[in-house]
Write a structure and sequence with these properties.
The chain is α+β, with helices and mostly antiparallel strands. The protein has ten helices and ten strands. It has a five-stranded antiparallel sheet, with helices on one face. Helix 2 packs antiparallel against helix 8, helix 8 runs antiparallel to helix 9 and helix 9 (295-334) runs antiparallel to helix 10 (338-372). The protein is elongated and about 85 Å long. The chain starts with a helix and ends in a 7-residue tail after the last helix.
């Protein structure tokens, strides 16, 4: 959030993160430059929740909520979703025979709550066992961007309406899948007495043709003004940012990717906790009443636990790899602009270091679990 705000303030009349340029004809042949706000990223991952294999554990349910964060972030793009300057809210999911959701805290309007609840109800949550108590998971609701604003000028309002209409273009983005999002620009020439002229770059292909139709349906002001709309697409379901994208956009894309990978870590942790609970119960029962016919099943369950350790470790190592990649990006930019990128580098260094320490801890846990597993019986 701080990097996005810093860049919006420092780049001024540019194409990234909040400010761009528009031109408006004047009485003379000279064009008049206008500042345009509201250039915001759009995460195509918000179009559909990712299917995750999770367990009925607090970690698993929290991970499932986090995996749907792109849709929650999108809710906050509309200023009608916010009620006050600061958002301090949580989304709680209680999984039982059915899953219920509750939003607590402050800063979200009824309009915003309805949007978040609609997104939450698209999540497929696991069901606890029939005899189990309901399982609860919670997610802090933290916007990843400022909302769009209105009232600066006709072009800035047009950009705000285009950005808010992006979810209606989800069908246009379906072909992206889990690949990095493309770089797209639309050049708008609005007219006071005629429909807008819209030209996309790249200008051909199914995605461009689909977007032309969606953009033509957006409510645009009747004014003689021209501007370029940078789509600033990101895909948090990808494994890497868009090749060739500007460093500020790649940094934000990495944020989304790491959020999804953190969800995977939570889900893998919950899977391990579920198996560990079952194994401990089975081991206690066996020790209380040893029956050798149950020994192979007990050993198999322990090996499943070790496999779950490995899945957890693998998710952490993937997250650590992404952290290393974004650190490389940030340090390259820091060498050119220490004032802007230095604070981010310091925070990221600590975060990525914590990823590494957690991976070491889980690796040691895996080794310990393997050593304590019942040994294979020799005939």
């Amino acid at each position: 959030m701080q990097m996005r705000t810093l860049l919006a303030a420092s780049l001024g009349c540019s194409a990234f993160f909040g400010a761009a340029c528009a031109t408006k004809p004047a009485v003379s042949p000279q064009a008049v430059k206008m500042q345009v706000n509201n250039m915001r990223t759009f995460d195509v991952a918000s179009c559909a929740p990712r299917t995750v294999a999770t367990t009925a554990t607090p970690e698993g349910i929290t991970g499932a909520l986090m995996a749907s964060s792109p849709a929650f972030h999108e809710c906050f793009m509309d200023p009608k979703s916010r009620a006050g300057a600061e958002i301090n809210s949580k989304l709680k999911a209680t999984a039982g025979e059915t899953t219920t959701f509750e939003i607590t805290g402050t800063g979200i309007s009824e309009f915003g709550k309805a949007c978040i609840m609609a997104a939450a109800k698209r999540i497929e949550m696991p069901k606890p066992g029939v005899s189990s108590a309901p399982i609860v998971g919670e997610l802090n609701l933290v916007p990843n961007s400022p909302a769009v604003t209105f009232g600066l000028n006709e072009a800035s309002d047009a950009v705000a309406n285009i950005r808010l209409a992006q979810p209606s273009a989800c069908s246009c983005y379906a072909s992206i899948g889990s690949a990095p999002a493309p770089i797209l620009t639309a050049n708008f020439t609005l007219h006071a007495t005629a429909p807008a002229d819209i030209a996309l770059a790249p200008e051909s292909g199914p995605m461009a043709e689909c977007l032309k139709g969606k953009l033509a349906a957006v409510n645009l002001p009747k004014a003689d003004v021209a501007f370029a709309y940078q789509f600033l697409l990101m895909n948090s379901h990808a494994d890497a940012p868009t090749p060739g994208a500007a460093a500020p956009l790649q940094n934000l894309q990495w944020d989304g990717i790491r959020e999804q990978q953190t969800a995977d870590v939570m889900i893998a942790s919950g899977g391990r906790a579920d198996i560990a609970s079952k194994y401990v119960s089975a081991a206690k029962a066996f020790n209380a009443k040893p029956e050798m016919k149950k020994y192979p099943a007990l050993r198999s369950m322990c090996l499943d636990l070790v496999e779950a350790d490995g899945s957890w470790l693998g998710a952490l190592e993937k997250l650590k790899g992404s952290g290393d990649s974004v650190l490389t990006l940030v340090r390259g930019e820091q060498a050119k602009d220490a004032a802007t990128w230095g604070p981010l580098e310091a925070r990221l260094s600590q975060i990525v270091g914590a990823y590494g320490e957690e991976a070491k801890r889980v690796s040691a846990l895996k080794d310990s679990d393997l050593k304590t597993c019942p040994k294979e019986l020799k005939r």
